[in-house]
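dumping this here so i dont lose it
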């Protein structure tokens, strides 16, 4: 397990064991449960709102955001709501085929060298915003490190390559910071 401390949050990462029994989804859930047991305790359940977003049965334990790639699970625990996490393994070729469906022209130009970073930033922003966003193009990656979505300004807290076991992934963490005032 890898632990990353941030100001206001903690991230726990671990490989998803491919050799254990069960479906991929069951292995992902076991990995997240392992991370939760090690960081917040086995007594706290991970529940889900109607929209699928996770929350903890014990509000005093904090707020969570969950992500997983094919081989790595990530759990973010924060003291305050409004945090989002995404983790992905390199898949530049696959993302290049769908980039125009999730990125505008400026974003494609700015992130053409690293579409995985753009994808993880948008996914983390989607989770942090907590808004009913139907299209990732509603989230705009600004050139100055800020992200906007439906009148909300979000900040990039972390976006880097990390290792968990034998796997290298792009990890992005975004935090909702304020409403945009005209």
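and the seq i came up w/
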């Amino acid at each position: 397990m890898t632990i990353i401390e941030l100001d206001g949050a903690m991230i726990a990462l671990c490989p998803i064991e491919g050799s254990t029994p069960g479906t991929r989804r069951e292995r992902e859930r076991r990995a997240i449960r392992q991370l939760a047991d090690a960081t917040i305790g086995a007594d706290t359940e991970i529940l889900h709102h109607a929209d699928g977003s996770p929350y903890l049965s014990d509000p005093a334990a904090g707020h969570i955001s969950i992500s997983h790639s094919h081989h790595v699970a990530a759990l973010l625990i924060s003291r305050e709501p409004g945090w989002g996490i995404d983790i992905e393994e390199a898949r530049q070729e696959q993302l290049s085929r769908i980039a125009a469906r999730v990125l505008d022209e400026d974003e494609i130009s700015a992130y053409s060298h690293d579409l995985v970073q753009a994808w993880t930033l948008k996914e983390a922003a989607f989770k942090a915003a907590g808004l009913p966003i139907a299209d990732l193009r509603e989230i705009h990656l600004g050139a100055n490190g800020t992200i906007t979505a439906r009148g909300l300004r979000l900040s990039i807290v972390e976006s880097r390559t990390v290792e968990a076991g034998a796997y290298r992934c792009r990890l992005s963490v975004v935090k909702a910071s304020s409403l945009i005032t005209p």
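The radius of gyration is 16 Å.
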